[in-house]
From TrEMBL:
Cellular component per GO, a single term: ATP-binding cassette (ABC) transporter complex, substrate-binding subunit-containing
Keywords attached to this entry: ATP-binding, Cell membrane, Membrane, Nucleotide-binding, Translocase, Transport
Name of the protein this chain belongs to: Carbohydrate ABC transporter ATP-binding protein (CUT1 family)
InterPro entries named among the record's database cross-references: AAA+_ATPase, ABC_transporter-like_ATP-bd, ABC_transpr_MalK/UgpC-like, Mo/tungstate-bd_C_term_dom, NA-bd_OB-fold, P-loop_NTPase, Transp-assoc_OB_typ2
UniProt source species: Thermasporomyces composti
Annotated ABC transporter domain residues: 4-242
GO molecular function: ABC-type transporter activity; ATP binding; ATP hydrolysis activity
Pfam families on file: ABC_tran (PF00005), TOBE_2 (PF08402)
Length: 374
C-alpha cells in the first residue's frame, strides 16, 4: 500500500494546457476516483503518477518520496489504461500471468496459478482462461486487461476507465466486484490497496470512491467524500456533475425582504427563502434544487410547514421505468422532479400543478458556469 501525493502539477502539450496546479493526496489504502468530462486531464494526471508523462512543474510523491527520478517500472504501480494491450498470440491465462512471469517478478508457477485463478473468478472470466484473446468480445478483453493489473502485487493500482466497454448490467456487477477488491476481499493480496480510478461516470464514482476529485479543464475543482460532493458541491459545475435528472439551476438575484433574504428568479415567477448564504442582496446568483428534493403538490391546500409552494404547468413528462421525470414550467423557469408512475399517470402536458420546495435543501451559487457556492 502507498500514499500518493500530487502537488502543483502542471503539464502543457504544445499550446494545450492539460493540467494546472493539480494537487491532491490519496491516502494509504484509499479508493480515489478522479471524475471529469472528456479532455479534463484525468489520463494525463494518472500518467504523471505512473511516470509515463513528465510534468512541467510540480511534484509526485509516493510514500513521501519525490519520484521525479524514479523509472515507471520502479514505482511499484499496476496500471490499466483504456486502450488495453493484450498479447493476441497468448490465451487468457497466459495474458494474465505474463506480468507475474516477467524477469523482474518471476513468481513461482504455483503462485502464478493461484493469483490468476483468484482474480479470474472475481472478474467472471474463469471460464475463459483457455480461450485465445482473438476469440473474446471487447468487454471480455477489457476484463482480461483489468485482471492482468489486479493479479500483480503493487503498492497502488492506477485504473483508467476500466469498465468503459462493458454493458450496463456487467458494469454494475463489476462495480460491486471492484468495491470488494478495493476492500481487499478478493485481490491477489490481502488488505486494501491504494487505487486511483479514472472515470467520467458519476454513478461509478459515487458507488466506488472513498473520496472523489472532480477535475475540469485541467484543474481540480473539489475533493471530497461522495456525501460531501453530493451535499455540498463547491460550484454549479460540480453540482451538475452528480445526479440524474441533473440539479435544477434557476437564474436570479438575492433580494432582501422583511423576513430575510430570498432568491427571486429573473422573471420574478419563483421566490424562495434562501438558507443562510454568504452573499449580499442584489447579487446575481443561481438557485440549485435537486429533482429528488422537489415534490408535487396536487390540489389546493396550504403547503406543509417549512415548504414553499410554487405554481406552474406540466411542461414535459418522461417515463423512466417505475418513475417519471416531470418538468414543470414556472414562468420562464423549468423545474424537474421525479414522481412515482402512479402519481404521474394522472398528469397531462399543460396541466396546472403545484410543487413543493424545502428551502433548507436548496443550494445557492454565484452566477456563471463555475459560480461558487455561497
Ligand atoms: P478522456 O476522458 O477523453 O480520456 P481525459 O480527462 O483523460 O479525457 P487527457 O487525456 O488527460 O483528458 O487530456 C487532457 C488534455 O490534454 C486534452 O485537451 C488532450 O487533448 C490533451 N493531450 C493529452 N495528451 C496529449 C498529447 N500526448 N499531445 C497533445 N495533447 C495531449
Amino acid at each position: 500500500m502507498a500514499t500518493i501525493e500530487l502537488e502543483g502539477l502542471t503539464k502543457r502539450f504544445g499550446k494545450v494546457t492539460a493540467l494546472t496546479d493539480v494537487s491532491f493526496t490519496v491516502n494509504d489504502g484509499e479508493f480515489f476516483c478522479l471524475l471529469g468530462p472528456s479532455g479534463a486531464g484525468k489520463t494525463t494526471t494518472l500518467k504523471c503518477v505512473a511516470g509515463l508523462v513528465e510534468p512541467d512543474g510540480g511534484t509526485v510523491r509516493i510514500d513521501g518520496v519525490d519520484v521525479a527520478d524514479v523509472e515507471p517500472t520502479h514505482r511499484h504501480l499496476a496500471m490499466c489504461f483504456e486502450s488495453y494491450a493484450l498479447y493476441p498470440q497468448y490465451n487468457v491465462f497466459d495474458n494474465m500471468a505474463s506480468p507475474l512471469r516477467s524477469p523482474r517478478m518471476r513468481l513461482p508457477e504455483a503462485e502464478v496459478r493461484q493469483r490468476v485463478s483468484r482474480v479470474a473468478e472475481l472478474l467472471g472470466i474463469d471460464q475463459l482462461l483457455d480461450r485465445s484473446i482473438t476469440q473474446l468480445s471487447n468487454g471480455q478483453r477489457q476484463r482480461v486487461a483489468l485482471g492482468r493489473v489486479l493479479v500483480r502485487p503493487a503498492h497502488a493500482y492506477l485504473l483508467d476507465e476500466p469498465l468503459a466497454h462493458l454493458d450496463a448490467k456487467l458494469r454494475s456487477t463489476m462495480r460491486a466486484e471492484l468495491k470488494a477488491i478495493s476492500r481487499g476481499d478478493g485481490t491477489a493480496d490481502a488488505g486494501r490497496t491504494t487505487t486511483i480510478y479514472v472515470t467520467h461516470d458519476y454513478v461509478e464514482a459515487l458507488s466506488l470512491a472513498d473520496r472523489i476529485g472532480v477535475i475540469r479543464h485541467g484543474r481540480i475543482l473539489q475533493v471530497g467524500t461522495p456525501t460531501e460532493v453530493w451535499a455540498k458541491p463547491v460550484n454549479a459545475f460540480v453540482a451538475l456533475a452528480f445526479g440524474k435528472p441533473r440539479m435544477n439551476i434557476l437564474q436570479g438575484t438575492l433580494v432582501a425582504r422583511d423576513d430575510g433574504v430570498r432568491f427571486v428568479s429573473r422573471d420574478g415567477a419563483v421566490e424562495v427563502p434562501t438558507p443562510a448564504v454568504d452573499a449580499q442582496p442584489g447579487e446575481a446568483v443561481q438557485l440549485g434544487i435537486r429533482p429528488r428534493d422537489v415534490t408535487l403538490h396536487l390540489g389546493a391546500g396550504d403547503p406543509p410547514p417549512g415548504r414553499v409552494r410554487l405554481d406552474g404547468v406540466v411542461y414535459v413528462l418522461e417515463h423512466l421505468g417505475r418513475q417519471t421525470e416531470v418538468t414543470v414550467q414556472i414562468g420562464e423557469n423549468l423545474v424537474s422532479l421525479v414522481a412515482s408512475r402512479s402519481v404521474a399517470r394522472s398528469l397531462r402536458q399543460d396541466d396546472k400543478v403545484g410543487i413543493l420546495v424545502d428551502p433548507t435543501t436548496t443550494h445557492v451559487f454565484l452566477a456563471g458556469d463555475e459560480g461558487k457556492r455561497v
